[in-house]
Amino acid sequence: MPRPARPVGSATRGTTNPNRLRRMDRWITAAHAPALRRSTDPVAVDLGYGAAPWTAVELLGRLRTVRPDAEVVGIEIDPARVAAAKPYERDGLAFAHGGFEVPLPAGRRALLIRAANVLRQYDEDEVTAVWQRLCGRLAPDGLLVEGTCDEIGRRHVWVALGPEGPRTITFAARLGSLGTPSDLAERLPKALIHRNVPGEAVHAFLRDFDRAWAAAAPYGALSARQRWIRTATALRADWPIVDGPTRWRQGELTLTWQSLAPTP
After folding, report:
1. Which of 156, 173, 190 is the last residue before a domain boundary?
2. Which InterPro entries does this one have (predicted)?
3. How many Å apart are CA 131 and CA 74, to the nearest integer?
């Protein structure tokens, strides 16, 4: 299929900081490790890396702790950003001009596409089409991770999708900076950011999250981590949480996407 004459999408603000995506990357290297190890073509895409290439450089280093020959291609729709990143290219790290069409060499599909802080500027009704386009560029066992975080990576919410569509949603935070779990609402991905209203599942979940957090307050005397673990344990009685204490200790909580999906 011929590629579009021009990249698909619009330029982001380009804001980036070192280690901004460390929470997402930490989750990826744990959740996607089996696929990374068995892949015959372990290529990952950092889509919309921004005005500086730090996140792509960091992604390569983190993936290589699991798969030493992993490759990362940073893709940006702004050609000036690609030119600025070119001096950072090295073995396994390249930068290319493109957008949601994900321009990889013929015959290659991404084992991972990470799209962080890319869709916030789009309308909610555009998200599904973008997801479908990106999922169409995945390898059969590939993963798309799309989400939003604050400027220094303390609070982050992301959706994980396979070629078939959305699978899970993860809430992650630096627990010492968290007042209540609903503080994460401002970092909901575009598919949910406008759905935190009564009648929507994400609103009910964040309400229950705050209630369980309040009930677990005595555990805060031990640590914020112990309070988070107790909160997650309580939530599991009513919500389909798919991870466990190993991830909770990292300040994460992952549910099925379907449990929080917006109403049609």
Report:
1. 173
2. SAM-dependent_MTases_sf
3. 18
Q: Are 131 and 223 within one domain?
A: no
Residues 109 and 48 in one domain: yes
Residue 166 shares a structural domain with residue 238 = no
Same-domain check for residues 34 and 50: yes
Please give the angle made by the CA atoms of 260, 250 and 243, to the nearest 5 degrees.
Answer: 45
d(CA 228, CA 164): 31
Say if 264 falls within a structural domain.
Answer: no
Task: Using only the alpha carbons of the chain, give its radius of gyration.
Answer: 18
Strands 155-162 and 165-173 come out as antiparallel
Burial class of residue 13 in the structure, from the number of CB atoms within 10 Å of its CB (0-12 exposed, 13-18 middle, 19+ buried): exposed
Identify the band that residue 15 occupies on the pLDDT scale cut at 50, 70 and 90: confident
pLDDT digits (tens, 9 = 90+) for 89-128: 999 999 999 999 999 998 999 999 999 999 998 999 999 9
